Amino acid sequence: MNKLGLLGVLFLLVCGCSKAVTDKAVVHNQWNDQPEMDRFIDSLMTEMTLEEKIGQTVLFASWWDITGPVSENDFVDDAIKGKVGAVFNALTADFIYRMQKEVVEKSRLGIPLLFGYDVIHGYRTTFPTPFAMSASWDLDQIEKSCRVAAVEAAADGLNWTFAPMVDIARDPRWGRIAEGAGEDAYLGSLIAAAQVRGFQGTDLSDEATVLACAKHFAAYGAAQAGRDYHTVDISERVLRDVYLPPFKAACDAGVATYMTAFNELDGTPCSAHEHLLNDILKEQWGFDGFVVTDYTSIKEMVNHGSVANEKEAGEASMNAGVDMDMQSGIFMNHLKQSVEEGKVKEATVNEACRRVLEMKYRLGLFEDPYRYCRPDEDKQSKIKSPEHFALAHEMARKSIVLLKNEDHLMPLNKEQLNSIALIGPMTDEQKQQLGAWHTTGQPETVTTILTAFKEKLGSKTKIYTAKGCDWEGDDRSGFAEALAAAKKAEVVVMCMGERENMGGEAASRVHIDIPLIQKELIREVHKTGKPIVLLLHNGRPLTITWENEHLPAIVECWHLGSMAGPAIADVVFGDYNPSGKLTATFPQHLGQVPVHYNMKNTGRPYNPEDHFTTRYQDCSNDPLYCFGYGLSYSSFEYSAVTLDTNTLTPDGKITASVKVNNTSNVDGEEVVQLYIRDLVGSVTRPVKELKGFQKVMIPANTAIDVNFEVRVEDLAFWRKDMSYGAEKGEFLLFIGTNSDVEQGIKFELSSDADVEPYTIR
Ligand code: NOJ
């Protein structure tokens, strides 16, 4: 089929469904119709040369944005020659439109390009970093934030985002913890599915949705010593129990693409990991989208030492199940020869090409190659709309975690406050509030803390401000001004922490403290004796042990995006009651890492009476703040847990109930958390695992009943023989305000039961 032929097929298909044009859903069904799609792609592929098929598996970056090493080739020219099928880091509808037009009009078959980009936490309206958003435990709100990102990105010509990052991260040294949903597989899975729903909606051919990409497959978060790109060596069991569930949840939610990880896993780089890609993802999970590598990761296999040269790298990668090469140019340069030499079967290339074409088809690009990028004022007007900012504001408020509030110092009473000092590098900062991987986020969209405080307090409260010091370095010249400001004020608010690029890619740290110069300033201001509220800004858990001991109030404000200032001001002055809960453990000291709530008991659990038990000589085993921790301006009391029955049968359920009493005079939201411990297993089981939660609003001075259903699926794991299921025996069930909940109630499972792997209820 030449281009005219392709247009002819399109014409017939469009005419075929013209009677349904008034009913959008029906038209979309037509375009999503599998047999119809197969017919179309079969027919197209018979016209394609081997080079053109390989071309569909090639992705190159444009020069608009740089997120890795830049290539020299002219990818538009190559795309016109049918050698490139997708482009990333190209921005603006206008630019993309022109590029698409060149390729559609000048290439032999006129196959449209895909346009990808890292739309991670917002496009122009910037939301909190994903790690921050996860602290909301609010799936609906997270889904909406991804929806907004998709709407804005799609209005600007993009049809593919490299998000969500669903890597479980248990090591705060790893900067990319900022991009994920924390340390827990269950919560991470629910969030992954919500993100996919948000980006992709229910219909990919809807112009306001984009392809999502679950990344980085797999176990990238388990990099040794938290050093980015480093080796990963974990057991198959840990891989399946901890790292894979969010990827499977994304698959079940219909994610269109996966991105391989940079790391090796058990000696094989993930971009050539047949077990991960062909066996688990495509065969066991039945994933029918396409797999793209991470940036130049095929090429990097030579450095890994798993192949001798780039050609071999390409062969290993394509044979393992990779469908698209990001930026290495290796498929483009070597794959044809590999096929000719019989190193890669042509059928394998055909399969990869088909998967890519299917996604283009599902997006509706064959129906209209310009549907995303055609200049459209109505769509453009949605970018940075007031509705989007309102959602970013709500998301930012929900992401804030109150870590300490001694003697109810907070909320500050704005009616009675005559003076306040705002000190620290984040005080009036716009860019740094955008957070890691803000990509297209614009600093000018950010309302700073200072601006928001001024608005909230009006002219009757005097605000003294001083930056005091920079994020890092040893310049103390601003200390005097900061101390003077603190001395004049009734209360001091310090805006400290990490610059945005201290988190994200290639941003591992061996000190996960507040940087030293800032710590010193905090200690100096503390000496003034003024009450201090510490507003923390960071992409990872920090070791703030000294601050926790000495300062009366600490608020975890992460990097909250465009509406950071207003959200923080709402919390500080009590116009919003914080409800966020940590999704990764904050250690007391770095030497405790890895430390997460769902560790194993060991053969010698800690016992203060017995020296030879698991412990450190110089620090307790306890974290500073545990997983699930976060305070509120309300106080919640939990009753003892009751069960409607103590015996669970494989096809039955147990209802666990608790009364949660808001004993304060303020309405508040609480994340009520359910944990389970399997006391004896064919392999050892964690001391606790999150298996449910409910975020509930509880009016002041009111008690509510919260009920959870527990079923056999909640007890399943990868058993000794690597089958998935639950084992009969005793369990402990806990319901509480965080993972440190102590009193468990016993129940038993009456018999063993097989369960569909990775079932999450
Ligand atoms: C490398 C990162 O690891 C990945 O997350 C990102 O999507 C790509 N670069 C593209 O920018």
TrEMBL record:
EC number: 3.2.1.21
Top EC category: hydrolase
Keywords of the record: Glycosidase, Hydrolase, Signal
Domain of life: Bacteria
Residue ranges of every copy of the Fibronectin type III-like domain listed in the record: 670-739
GO molecular function: hydrolase activity
Signal sequence extent: 1-20
UniProt-listed InterPro entries: Cellulose_Degrad_GH3, Fn3-like, GH, Glyco_hydro_3_AS, Glyco_hydro_3_C, Glyco_hydro_3_C_sf, Glyco_hydro_3_N, Glyco_hydro_3_N_sf
Signal recorded as keyword: yes
SUPFAM superfamilies named among the record's database cross-references: (Trans)glycosidases (SSF51445), Beta-D-glucan exohydrolase, C-terminal domain (SSF52279)
Catalytic activity reported: Hydrolysis of terminal, non-reducing beta-D-glucosyl residues with release of beta-D-glucose
Any Pfam family hit: Glyco_hydro_3_C
Residue ranges crossing the lipid bilayer per the database entry: none
Similarity remark: Belongs to the glycosyl hydrolase 3 family.
Name of the protein described by the UniProt record: beta-glucosidase
